[in-house]
UniProtKB/TrEMBL annotation, chains A, B:
<feature type="domain" description="Transcription regulator PadR N-terminal">
    <location>
        <begin position="8"/>
        <end position="83"/>
    </location>
</feature>
<dbReference type="InterPro" id="IPR005149">
    <property type="entry name" value="Tscrpt_reg_PadR_N"/>
</dbReference>
<dbReference type="Pfam" id="PF03551">
    <property type="entry name" value="PadR"/>
</dbReference>
<keyword id="KW-0238">DNA-binding</keyword>
<dbReference type="InterPro" id="IPR036390">
    <property type="entry name" value="WH_DNA-bd_sf"/>
</dbReference>
<protein>
    <submittedName>
        <fullName>Transcriptional regulator</fullName>
    </submittedName>
</protein>
<dbReference type="InterPro" id="IPR052509">
    <property type="entry name" value="Metal_resp_DNA-bind_regulator"/>
</dbReference>
<dbReference type="InterPro" id="IPR036388">
    <property type="entry name" value="WH-like_DNA-bd_sf"/>
</dbReference>
<dbReference type="GO" id="GO:0003677">
    <property type="term" value="F:DNA binding"/>
</dbReference>
Amino acid sequence: MSVIRLLVLGAVRQHGRAHGYQVRNDLEYWGAHEWSNAKPGSIYHALKQMAKEGLLHAHEIAPSTAGGPPRTEYEVTEQGTEAYFRLLRESLTSYDQKPDVLSAGLGLMVDLSREEALELLERRLRAIGEWRSAVTEYYTPADGPGQLGHIGEIMDFWVHSADTGAEWTRALMERIKGGAYTFAGEGEPFVGVLADGEENPYATGERHPGDAR
Amino acid sequence: MSVIRLLVLGAVRQHGRAHGYQVRNDLEYWGAHEWSNAKPGSIYHALKQMAKEGLLHAHEIAPSTAGGPPRTEYEVTEQGTEAYFRLLRESLTSYDQKPDVLSAGLGLMVDLSREEALELLERRLRAIGEWRSAVTEYYTPADGPGQLGHIGEIMDFWVHSADTGAEWTRALMERIKGGAYTFAGEGEPFVGVLADGEENPYATGERHPGDAR
DNA sequence: CCCTTGCTAGTCAAACTTGACTACTGCGCC
DNA sequence: GGCGCAGTAGTCAAGTTTGACTAGCAAGGG
């Protein structure tokens, strides 16, 4: 899975209705441009593509209120909501060594109930365990370890990442069990997006390509 | 950086002269199809693109000796060797949260001298340290932590990954200092590619898309 | 003998990503 | 009073990745 669709759907959903630039700002607010490939081009492409596929509904909108070209606003359709939750559940459950996918899942997990989040993370732990034993059995040569030479370091690195990842997941589950955060159906949700016109307190000031000079 | 170029250059270089299918098999031997995007299409594309850019020299070759369409053999040019070492050094030095890049670097680090590998890993540790303090200072709100809500879990996950990654790097450095593995200029190198016709002892038997049914 | 299966070796279109570029508005300021 | 700068909102071509598809040869079975 590509993480960009999950992020974009999550952002649009939290706004109800959003245009591309708003989504772009939210993702920057989440730091997604640092830990994923969420760049302007990818975001606009994902919006258009998902609109074409019926996951988003595009409203053609009059020229912007704040300067700049006319903008298109998007809303998540029923199909899009389905796709969103499928991607979100997958991001928390599957172990595929891609940290960006988990990061996105963490940022959006509160759209699920607390119980479901815990259940998915439990499944994640099991997936890590299965992956680990498959890899260690498979890549341990019959003539004993060490036959792999330095190539074995690659495997050791994966296994180490899996182990520390599992440990971290367990700690997260404890925090969630301990009542941390506000999940779906638990009252006023944490506001994870920027209101129109609100400035990003974590703005880097960095200019990314895509900004005019 | 994309990891595919590094892997392909490394594989071709170890053969001296190789065709696409051979590279594809080597990368499978290294397990690269599991921890990176090394799929047939990407490999052939990288070969062609790098040939166009002068990093590889393409020999048009007569029909295959073992069935199948005619094949093209490639050799790394001087420019390609330069690019290879640049990518290799970067893969070991830079910390960018992409585990596939480091994995490739580990598999190819023995093309460097032992001292240089250690020096690059030392630089890596420093890079992780700098990254860590930049992130923690930046994303710790003035009103104390906790203001970020569950979004803070993303940051915690990155920082945890950085810390365990640094710890693992230190352990690797100890192994290298302790004399593990055979680096450049230390005699008979470890054979990391498959000879023509040799079968992959770690073949998964899995079929990847790109294989005929 | 011919037909399927399997291996060798690749091509190709569609989707995605990247980074550069465009275009419009308002504001300050010289 | 017009010039440039900063911010808004996006487009676009070039490059990359993906997964499906093609095609040749060999071995074995009925």
